[in-house]
Amino acid sequence: MKILIIGAGVGGTTLAALLEGRGHEVDLIERSPDFAKSGYALSIWPLGSRVLIGLGLIKQFRQIANPLGTYHLRNGKGDAINTYRLADKISVHGDAGTLSRKSLLELLRSKLSDTRLRMNTSITALTQTSASVSVTFADGRQSDYDLVVGADGIHSKTRELIAGHVPLHETGWGGWIWWADNGVIPVDDVTEYWGAGRFLGLYPCKEQLCVFAGGPIGQMDIKTHRAADIRDHFKPIAAALPSVFDALPDDTNEIFFWKLDDVRSAVWSEGRVVLLGDAATAFLPTAGVGASNAMESAAVLADELLRVEANTVTRALRLYELRHRKRVQAAQTESRNLAKVMLVSSTPLAWARDELMKHYPVDKFVADILKSLEQPI
Ligand SMILES: Cc1cc2nc3c(=O)[nH]c(=O)nc-3n(C[C@H](O)[C@H](O)[C@H](O)COP(=O)(O)OP(=O)(O)OC[C@H]3O[C@@H](n4cnc5c(N)ncnc54)[C@H](O)[C@@H]3O)c2cc1C
Q1: Is 185 within the bounds of a domain?
Q2: CA 123 to CA 110: how far, in whole Å?
């Protein structure tokens, strides 16, 4: 089959890697001009790392990711709330590790040899007949495909073209990401500070420590005196972590403000066009499972595509959706529920949450992830 994958992110690149050597002609296009930026840290759970086993990449993953060992929960002042030994619970199901998005994409791209990757490329229109999809690229060129996969992320153009406008689910929170040298926590420790109207996450990757500092958008989306204001917003923690906050880029440096939104599309496919990953069901970073779900979805779609030819491809798309939509949406609901607990603005509510979390057992903390690992896909 002649297949176009739109978006060389986590889901699109995983799918391209899985389709290698299967006799397909695959074009993978990416809107960004290059892969230079590290992006942010991704924690990959066995949902995703199991796919790397199938791709023969698990040994390399272990070399480039920090194992996910212990999760430390602290309050907005920096006091310890609870400590969860994640490794004890998760390792029986496979690998869990933290790495930069850039490293994960590099790893996945190492499997691409027949795939034609084109950077700086996007689409403007999709026109379907029962036999093919005609794609118009942003530079005006046109090409016909048997299958088009929209793996173009939360603000998917493909989704807009097949499903129209789908509103974002907005938490009203957002935050800044930057990278600092890690002299502050062990490499297999993830540490999060859940405060009232503030959230700070420290995710150690091999290169550096990824820092996410979030809060209600009105208080956090600061354009001038950004570094000083963010430091002020996180005062007690910033004082305890000077090297982390010293690395915060000042106003003159380009730095992206992430809104904590997600999206749930009612339409996953239309004819020969199908959505994958965040384009279909985007994730808040609260549970840290969006990338793993995108990888698992890619594995399900690739599996279904093994059993069809160009004339029956829509059948594979229907089965992919039947197998995976409910599971992905359940995981998304869990990450939304977690957001209600993590992203709290009121001081009394944050205090009550902290008291509850002091006694919250590890089995409950990882219950949703463990449940999903026990279920068939
Ligand atoms: C701050 C943050 C932290 C996160 N932490 C975690 C975590 O710890 N663990 C986890 O599992 N998940 C995490 N996630 C979620 C995770 O990043 C996503 O769920 C995952 O990347 C989804 O994969 P995807 O392939 O669908 O989209 P993406 O990886 O976003 O890839 C989409 C790609 O499509 C490209 N693109 C967009 N539009 C077009 C177009 N029109 N034409 C061509 N290309 C296009 C984009 O440039 C991008 O490369 C986090 C997300 C954020 C924002």
Answers
A1: no
A2: 25
